[in-house]
Amino acid sequence: MYDIAIIGGGPGGLTAGMYAGRARLRTIIIDKGLPGGQMQNTLEIENYPGYKMITGPQLSELMYEHTLEFGTEWKQAEAVGIDLTERVKIIKLGDGTAIKARALIIATGAQPRKLNVPGEQQYAGRGVSYCATCDGAFFRNKEVVVVGGGDSAVEEGVFLTRFASRVTIIHRRDQLRAAPILQERAFANPKIHVLWDTVVEEIVGDAKVSKVKVKNVKTGEDSALDTDGVFIYIGYLPNTEFLKHTGLLNASGYIETNSNMATKIPGVFAIGDVRDTALRQIVTAAGDGAVAAMSAYHYLESW
């Protein structure tokens, strides 16, 4: 029996674990992957306070070590089910075991949204990628496309210019949604080109990707663009499949909370990218984690 169980070991989960451990609560973090979550796939982080520049793996390791110093436990396992019907929360794991806790913090994050076009699944890992920092080096001196117009698409597009000879950003609108500073960097980079008002209809190849078929949404004109790689950044989907029968989710699959990170079920809190929130950043996930841990602490005071 734990005081607090945290599902998800990204920046929010790790921060919650650190605060809960510091409050002398018996705490466990459960995650099927490495500590840090999506930070592990981020090469450079320049907007986390206190670090002008740090790699994602480095920040992940520092947060992980800090959390363990306060006695919080780490278990590498996948949460496949959950029982919130009783006062004690039960997390069912993929190995057939279960964890019991008096309070629960959900920090399972989100995963990249798919285009759902022909060829996307077929060429995943053979030219189709959702992580430029993971796969960018495989496209040295090659031409690639980036699909999307938000912060991630533009930031990763600029990153890809370190390797690729040409990066074409394909965006369905006539202006980018990324932060102004990111747009400035992109437009100033001679390797970056933008294809406006365009959507990808199909990804084509043989052994690997060779081109994308696209359509102009204003003129309806179809065309094809030769490319060696397709990097997709069109948003995220919350990792909440195992929670669909709990009543915690809104129509988009995100968890709704109040300002204390509390859900509609007493003793259950949610933080980070899995929460219905306006901004999804490392710093906001960490802030959520601190608030949730302290909210859980006060909840347990009246247990």
CATH T-level topology of the largest domain? FAD/NAD(P)-binding domain
Instruction: Give the number of helices.
Output: 6
Q: Over the alpha carbons, how many angstroms does the gyration radius reach?
A: 21 Å
* CATH class categorisation of the largest domain: Alpha Beta
Instruction: Characterize the overall form.
Output: elongated
Mean pLDDT, as a whole number? 96
Give the CA-CA distance, first to last residue: 14 Å
Count of DSSP E strands?
17
Structural class: alpha/beta
The run of helices and strands is EHEHEEEEEEHEHEHEEEEEEEH
CATH H-level superfamily of the largest domain = FAD/NAD(P)-binding domain
Strand content: 25-35%
Low-confidence stretches: none
The assigned CATH architecture of the largest domain is 3-Layer(bba) Sandwich
Q: How many discrete domains?
A: 2
Helix content range of the residues, please? 10-25%
- How is the biggest beta sheet arranged? 7 strands, mixed
Task: Name some characteristics of this structure.
303 residues; alpha/beta; FAD/NAD(P)-binding domain; seven-stranded mixed beta sheet; five-stranded parallel beta sheet; 6 helices; 22% helix; elongated
Please provide a written account of the structure.
Helix 1 packs parallel to helix 6 and helix 4 packs parallel to helix 5. Strands 1, 2, 3, 4, 5, 6 and 17 form a seven-stranded mixed β-sheet that branches. Strands 8-15-9-10-11 form a five-stranded parallel β-sheet, covered by helices on one side. A three-stranded antiparallel β-sheet has the order 12-13-14, with no helix packed on it. The mean pLDDT is 96. The longest helix has 20 residues. The protein is α/β, with parallel strands linked by helices and 303 residues long. The protein is elongated and about 65 Å long. Helix content is 22%, strand content 28%. It is built from six helices and 17 strands. It folds into two domains: 177 residues, FAD/NAD(P)-binding domain; 105 residues, FAD/NAD(P)-binding domain, CATH 3.50.50.60.
